[in-house]
Amino acid sequence: MSGRLRPETETHWKRCCPAPSNQVHALARRILVNPDNASEATQEILILVLTKLSTFKGEAAFSTWVYRVAVRYLLNTRKIRDRDLGLTFDMFAADLESGLVADPPKAPDDALLLNELRISCTMAMLLCLKMESRLAYVLGDIFELDHGEASQILELTPATYRKRLSRARSEVEAFTSHHCGIVSTSAKCACPRRLPAAMEAGRVQRGNYPNSANAKEGYADIRAQVGAVIEDLKTFKLHRSVPHHECPEAIRVALTEILSPPA
Q1: What is the pTM of this model?
Q2: Quick check: 6 pLDDT over 80?
Q3: Residue 6 in 3-state DSSP?
Q4: Cβ partners under 8 Å of residue 128, min gap 6
C-alpha cells in the first residue's frame, strides 16, 4: 500500500488504535503460537483492516468487524495453511511423554523455566485443533466472546458455532484431563519432569521467556488455582491463565509509517 490514506480513514484509525493492534495480535498469538509468525500475520491483518476501513458500516461493533477481517485472513491465506504442522492430540501426547525424568534436577531459575514451559505447552496444545475449531475455541472459551458475536465473526449460524465450540472444548478437555499434570495428578507428564527434555530440545531456554514475560502469576500459583476449581473448570482455568500478549511496538511503528509516509 502506498501513499496516504484518505483523511477520514486515517482519523478513524488513529482514534481506534492501539486497540485493534492488541486485539489482532492476541488472536494471532493464540492461533499461530509462534511469535514470529504471529507478528507477521498481525502486520498483514492490520494493513488489511486499514485498506478496508472505508467498508466498515457500523452494522456490528468495530472490534467484531476487525476480528472478522482477521479470521478471514487466518482461514484463507495460503502461507498460514502451508505452515500447519498437522499436529494431533495423539502426537502431542507422545511428545509430552518422551524424555520424562523421574527425579528432575533443581535449578535457581526453575520457577521461571517452569512457568515458560507451562504457558508454551498450553498454547501449543491448541495447534492440535483444526483451524476452524481452534478459532471457535479461542473466541469462545479463551476470549469469552458472546456466542452471538463469535458466530458473526466466524460467519456461522449460532447453532453451528455452538456445536463447533462444544466439539473443540470436548477435545481439549479430554486431552488435558489425561495428559496435563497441572489438570490431572494421574497424568504422566508434569512440567518439572518434562523440563529437562524441553530445554534439551531448545523449546525452553534460560533467560528467554517470550511467552511468560508478562505473566502475573507463576507456575506454583496456577497449579494451586487449577487444583482448587471443580473438574469441569480445570481446563478452562489452565487456558485462561496464559498472559495477554500485546502487539509489539515495532508493528505499530511500521503502521505509523504507512499512515504518514515521508513527503
Answers
A1: 0.88
A2: no
A3: coil
A4: 87, 88, 89, 91, 92, 171, 175
